Amino acid sequence: xxxxxxxxxxxxxxxxxxxxxxxxxxxxxxxxxxxxxxxxxxxxxxxxxxxxxxxxxxxxxxxxxxxxxxxxxxxxxxxxxxxxxxxxxxxxxxxxxxxxxxxxxxxxxxxxxxxxxxxxxxxxxxxxxxxxxxxxxxxxxxxxxxxxxxxxxxxxxxxxxxxxxxxxxxxxxxxxxxxxxxxxxxxxxxxxxxxxxxxxxxxxxxxxxxxxxxxxxxxxxxxxxxxxxxxxxxxxxxxxxxxxxxxxxxxxxxxxxxxxxxxxxxxxxxxxxxxxxxxxxxxxxxxxxxxxxxxxxxxxxxxxxxxxxxxxxxxxxxxxxxxxxxxxxxxxxxxxxxxxxxxxxxxxxxxxxxxxxxxxxxxxxxxxxxxxxxxxxxxxxxxxxxxxxxxxxxxxxxxxxxxxxxxxxxxxxxxxxxxxxxxxxxxxxxxxxxxxxxxxxxxxxxxxxxxxxxxxxxxxxxxxxxxxxxxxxxxxxxxxxxxxxxxxxxxxxxxxxxxxxxxxxxxxxxxxxxxxxxxxxxxxxxxxxxxxxxxxxxxxxxxxxxxxxxxxxxxxxxxxxxxxxxxxxxxxxxxxxxxxxxxxxxxxxxxxxxxxxxxxxxxxxxxxxxxxxxxxxxxxxxxxxxxxxxxxxxxxxxxxxxxxxxxxxxxxxxxxxxxxxxxxxxxxxxxxxxxxxxxxxxxxxxxxxxxxxxxxxxxxxxxxxxxxxxxxxxxxxxxxxxxxxxxxxxxxxxxxxxxxxxxxxxxxxxxxxxxxxxxxxxxxxxxxxxxxxxxxxxxxxxxxxxxxxxxxxxxxxxxxxxxxxxxxxxxxxxxxxxxxxxxxxxxxxxxxxxxxxxxxxxxxxxxxxxxxxxxxxxxxxxxxxxxxxxxxxxxxxxxxxxxxxxxxxxxxxxxxxxxxxxxxxxxxxxxxxxxxxxxxxxxxxxxxxxxxxxxxxxxxxxxxxxxxxxxxxxxxxxxxxxxxxxxxxxxxxxxxxxxxxxxxxxxxxxxxxxxxxxxxxxxxxxxxxxxxxxxxxxxxxxxxxxxxxxxxxxxxxxxxxxxxxxxxxxxxxxxxxxxxxxxxxxxxxxxxxxxxxxxxxxxxxxxxxxxxxxxxxxxxxxxxxxxxxxxxxxxxxxxxxxxxxxxxxxxxxxxxxxxxxxxxxxxxxxxxxxxxxxxxxxxxxxxxxxxxxxxxxxxxxxxxxxxxxxxxxxxxxxxxxxxxxxxxxxxxxxxxxxxxxxxxxxxxxxxxxxxxxxxxxxxxxxxxxxxxxxxxxxxxxxxxxxxxxxxxxxxxxxxxxxxxxxxxxxxxxxxxxxxxxxxxxxxxxxxxxxxxxxxxxxxxxxxxxxxxxxxxxxxxxxxxxxxxxxxxxxxxxxxxxxxxxxxxxxxxxxxxxxxxxxxxxxxxxxxxxxxxxxxxxxx
Length: 1403
Hints:
By secondary structure, the chain is α/β, with parallel strands linked by helices.
């Protein structure tokens, strides 16, 4: 095979003759480049993931929110960079925070006190250095060289790091056939060529001479998810790929790993007591390796006799009389002491740190894992007292050697896992003292018979190999008590296990066993614990003698475990069980969640049962035997269909925790006596009331969650002034509680957490708040409160006050509380804020967004970091319609770490695109921030390369994997991106929503009021993912996680789990239609607490996107979420003129804008949970009266997203499209149809209360308010008085109410159709409203009398009317409307030549 230098010469002459001899100008010292973000600073979580902004653990939940609005607050240029200051981009707080983060990092980098870049291989979690790109000498590829590579897909480039030249980066051109021996050595020192490859910053492996570097690199990049070979070729030419795969010329040097192997040097050494004049200082070789200090006996020499000083249990002390001097002492009566003086402080500190770790060990252990070892260090053999040796994740080749058995005479535990041995290491068989041996994940295909000589072996781990059988010689290992054979390729249980009588646990999960042979297991009476998780079969026969049985993650449909008379613990989660029968003689714990159980039978009654989890099944009744289990402490029956709980259950004196949420409970037992339950969860049921004596008799109750029910009142806690309640946490969110229940809260003086959000509270009496002195956290959002009582000052321990989405007008005196940390007063009616001169010392966040009347000095408040306020917006200068508007919120978990981040760009790349994202780091804060700061730039670059939605989304996620740098080597995070774009060739064309996600972050679209999932979670339950994981021999732990790290098989980061875990996302694109109301992006914490149906239903009636996001976050926290939460709600206003249905076989979906000849107006009973849009009959403008003077009206006109999609009931007998059916983008002039738009006039009102008067219980239909404005919905029609004849309006009786039919035009009359290029009547304003054309619209008359009431929260008027033009009126107004209609007909008969106006007086 020809050398790579000759291959390179095939390139054009301009390439400089290839890469074998670098050009002088390319290798000049002044030419440098920047490595990947954080390429030289690894990541290692400290203190449980690190703290952000100095906040300690155990604090309150903290929120971070941003305002949403129709006006795009930020714009990204085509390159993806933020817009210039002073433009519209200043309004986007998310991108502003991103800019501040980058500025802070830049300031930290330029600071003189900034720490130098960490050496290669270290893992410092300095977040300020994550985005920095430390300078590195780089020889860039020249354009002719790139052209040479691109001519042939068999060519490529690998970047080789020259370790001997201070990590000099050298690109080498080669082909797929170029071997490691043929790669040019560059300026490497003379000697045999050695090329090393390092994956994801971990261990480095020396390549064999025949291995092909470019093929290795291409395979790695292909496994990440790149589809096209040309894209793999391009990525290989990027030097930033080094954080994923890196090549070294010579073995890379890592300070961290070399310290763990050994420390050595020539130092001044003195033996014995330092004050004796006999001992003198001499310069000798000193080595710290393993557990010993080794000192040479010959001056200035490394040969001769070596003195060994065991350090386990000894001392390492600083000698103050000498500079940089340490004293090393051994333990025991014959202890010795060596004094070593080091040349500098760095050496002194390194030895002190490492030697102190060794001396502090209780056992003689050495950890040399992840050190890229090919051979054991020679000095390690001096540690003759070594008992535990960890050598996992290296590249060892252990051959039989007499020195092995002689050196490790006391070795008991040896870990050789993940060394890719291929063959069983025979050398370990000569260590007779071994009691524990781990050779998992080594691609072993057989176990030699010589292992039978290890007679003392007790634990033998062989997981994750390719074993199909075991040797019979294992029967000689009489002390072997634990053998793990999980995730191998056994087709049956090895027969030799029958003779291992000391073994009590059988671990064979993840094998290829279709059916367990009952006869084999019967011959193993010594087996007590059977682990048969994730088998490939679906039929299992069982035996009679086990105490613990694990059958998780199989496909079992039925399980009869009554033959297990001695079973104590049964795991059968995540199966398909419909019936389950168990023997209850000795049953202590039952885990049967996530099945399809309808019948559960345990006989006899399990008197030893203490824990039972049967949640997420289909049970309709709780078995009677449960009430007779006298020792039952924890019972979880959540997510079933249980309608009633037996009263005897609450009489159980041992029951401490009862979880019965997400069922169909209509009531709880009426009479309860001395209930001992401490935790009671009955959320998401149908409870109208709680038992009257529940809180009187529950003396031990500490936690009660009754959220998401229909409660209107609370039971009393005491009948006198004295109370025995010890209740500390009370969650009552999303009920119908009124002010009457507030006084009852005083019966719980020890209450610490109170959640009463989204009820019907109008006030919170000050006297009652004063009695809750121990209150620490309160959430009263989503009510109708106008003030927070001043007596909140009595709650000295209060640290969190959440009261968004109310009508609060006066800023509460919470700033006087010394412990206050988080205050959320967003979406209220605040007009001014009074702040003390000195803010509370622990204040972390004060959220004032969504207060439209609040006027603040932004220049002053921007410097206060904890403030969250609405940013000033310049609006959309382009005048484009506001098709989308967004709101977002973030909340930290109970650990007070915000491990989520959100991204929003209403104007992305141009004003016709948008980008939104949510990122979740689980327990780390670094990855979400990196994703937030980088991902939009990557997507903008990918949009320049391809317009295919799936392709650019997939490539964005994969490139983000590279951009994470060393942060993504050990940490990871979920992500979801939503990109809205239109066809650039058709400026008025359709909008396409593309969603891509990895991990547990997901998106759901609300279409026609129904949830439409746009994401997918790749977990172990996915068959294709499980198959892929097994192929790579990853270990799936009992909790369903890959190697115990993550349960998502597709996620960003965690590159050390490659190739089992990859960043390839799920991508789904959908064309937006007028029926699409909004979509939600949420983090893992949100979707773990709310289903998609519940989330859509919860915010569908909330008009403001910010308030909607806040509501989702509040609900999730009240429902039990303790993790960080992020939610982004994007409201859509897609009109008919931006939706094309020509591709749908000419049949358009039901949408406003085009109507049939006749329109039916149906007056019927309204469902209590539905919202309709008031509209008037075709050809008539509605004039509505009001008690408010029209002088209060404003000239502002706007339209926003609809709460509910229009109802569809097109008249079958009168089609809307005669002849060829076309869409609004490609219209056909119709003679019998017309088009219209809906506008809304906005005026101020002193009586506005979020759409509610003070005496109203429900909002008023047709009047919409954002707190300071009231919007009245008005239709604009085409009225041609001279062309129209008398309208006949017959009134017909109907079962549902009154049906009024109105024909728009009489047949045969000529009519002039209004057609335009965009299909829109009138001109679009910048805020999305429609300005009528004078020639086609009559006068808009705005009424002042309140129209119908509407359930739910306040909302904004839609931009389009209902396609059926249905006007639904409650029955109580039917008679009045009949009279109005009658009067209207009389007026029409009197004035046939003039158009009449139909006036509704609704009271």
